[in-house]
Amino acid sequence: MPTTEFRELCRKHAKKYIDIQRDSFKRLGVTADWGNPYITMDFKFEANIYRTLCQVAKGEGLFKVRRRNTKGPYYFLGSLGGHALGNLAT
Questions:
Q1: What's the pLDDT tens digit per position in 19-34?
Q2: With 51 labelled, which of 28, 66, 83, 87 sits at a CA distance of 20 to 30 A?
Q3: What residues contact residue 55 under an 8 Å CB cut-off, 6+ apart?
Q4: What dihedral angle (degrees, nearest 10) is formed by the CA atoms of 21, 38, 87, 31?
Q5: What is the reported pTM?
């Protein structure tokens, strides 16, 4: 299966749960901007996350570490040096 098709199937699966989670949070009394949700799989947010991580990596704030008995690398954020990860939606 091509990667693009696999990702699209994952997005479809995840979309099914957005309304379920929203309704559950509302029942719990959570107050939020329900008309403008933060959905990490939204391409706008993904692009901003990527840009921010690139800025952090350029500033030597992202470290790649390989540990024993693991299949892949782990990435750690060191000192953010003024990078605002909380402002990803802009």
A1: 899 999 999 999 999 8
A2: 66
A3: 83
A4: -60
A5: 0.49
